[in-house]
Amino acid sequence: MTAPDTMTTPPTGPHAPDRKPLSVPYITAWSGETRRKTAIVPNRTRTGITFADGENVQDRDGHGVLWTSRGLAPGKGVPMFGYVHPQRQRRCMRRRLCQVCGGPADQTADGTLWLLDTAGIEEPFPQAVERTVQPPVCRRCAVETPPLCPALRRGHAVVRVRRHAIVGVYGHLYRRCRSTGQVVSDRQEYVDYGDPTLRWVLAGQLFAHISGISLVSEDETTHWREQAEPIATKGAASARQRREGPALIQVNE
Length: 253
Ligand SMILES: [Zn+2]
Fold this sequence. Notes:
Layout: E1 28-30, E2 40-42, E3 49-51, E4 66-67, E5 79-84, H1 86-95, E6 107-108, E7 111-117, E8 131-132, H2 139-144, H3 150-153, E9 156-176, E10 183-192, E11 201-215, H4 218-227, H5 236-244
Parallel strand pairs: 4-11
Antiparallel strand pairs: 1-5, 2-3, 6-7, 7-9, 8-11, 9-10, 9-11
The structure holds zinc ion (ZN).
Zinc ion binds near residues 100, 103, 137 and 138.
């Protein structure tokens, strides 16, 4: 049931001629991608969590972390804006793929391109942002996505990131209930690799520490915008996305 994290790269890179419109971000989950609904239970030694119906080899990553999963069927059903597909988010973070189109993220000597949500950040940017579950982006998506995403319209920054290290997972942190002996989760947390509580997390996304951040100039993004196709050609799907809400800024399940 758990799909491998080894999908072939779709022909939707930033410069591919058949590149798809931005109506649904690559990491967005679709309703046809059924989420695994197995109960979470204590493991045999009571030192962490496991699936009630047993584990497959793909259920844990190289750090021994248990992962939630969905089927892989992008385009099936309706897009679930606000929900991240765990396998695709991992793939983008590991391979530095654009979270919106799935093509290669833009990289130069100044670093990898990132589109960061800055709404509500009062400290001077970019020093305030060091931890993120957001994968990078390509140039085109960096300039075309913000007008389509309500969260990014409230505040965003296009930045270059010199150093990017995946350091842990974001997911549901479980604890044992003393009265029932079962496990419950009432919050989601960022947990670093090496943290003992990692055994109690059902991971949904990778998170990275980013540093060496510099803002991309407006002159440069304006130039990219001029090179991109007009958004008006992308049709009704984009208009529907503007009405329906968050597209790029998403949550874990
Ligand atoms: Zn892109």
